[in-house]
Write a structure and sequence with these properties.
Elements (H helix, E strand, L loop, with lengths): L3 H5 L1 H6 L1 E6 L4 E5 L14 H18 L5 H9 L4 H12 L1 H15 L4 H20 L9 H22 L1
Helix pairs in contact: 4-5, 7-8
């Protein structure tokens, strides 16, 4: 994961602030202790702590921007009228319900092949987990053999689960 604080706010990199977690619900940053960031008594300087708090607040605010605001605020800043930028921000969100209706219609039409498509998607997810998330399995010269073993083992487990109940 790219460090959100350091990539978007260069001052965070200068102070040694790193992103531990950044979601819309929770932002966790760390500030490394260093003598140049402390007061005479060895306590972290208030300015460094305020920078940490301001950076966490900025990331949290950015991650919680409403969808339409991500379009309408830059349009307004570029000189578009308030109502036009509001309209385009609202219009950009109108594709979501239309996409949902299109997806529901496709599911109804593709209902006979849906179990096979979902099984293929599940197999693709298992492959990605075995190939990317389990780093120990990818060490050495037989990394593809390890991935194949995970996939065959999972297929055997599912077969036995269905066969034996």
């Amino acid at each position: 994961m790219d460090d959100l604080a350091r990539s978007t706010m260069p001052f965070c990199a200068a102070l040694g602030i790193t992103t531990q977690q950044a979601t819309a619900e929770r932002v966790t940053l760390t500030l490394d202790w260093a003598a140049e960031r402390c007061t005479i008594g060895g306590a972290m300087h208030g300015g460094a702590i305020m920078t940490l708090a301001d950076s966490a607040g900025a990331i949290c605010a950015f991650l919680n921007l409403p969808e339409g605001a991500a379009l309408s605020i830059p349009l307004r800043r570029e000189g578009m009228s308030r109502w036009k930028s509001f309209f385009w921000g609202q219009f950009s969100g109108m594709v979501e319900p239309l996409g949902g209706l299109l997806g529901a219609a496709l599911v109804m039409v593709a209902r006979p092949v849906l179990p096979y498509a979902l099984a293929f998607a599940a197999g693709a997810m298992i492959f990605v987990v075995a190939e990317e998330v389990i780093p120990e399995s990818q060490k050495g010269e037989h990394s593809h053999l390890a991935t194949l073993g995970v996939m065959l083992g999972f297929a055997l487990m599912m077969f036995l689960d269905v066969a034996l109940g």
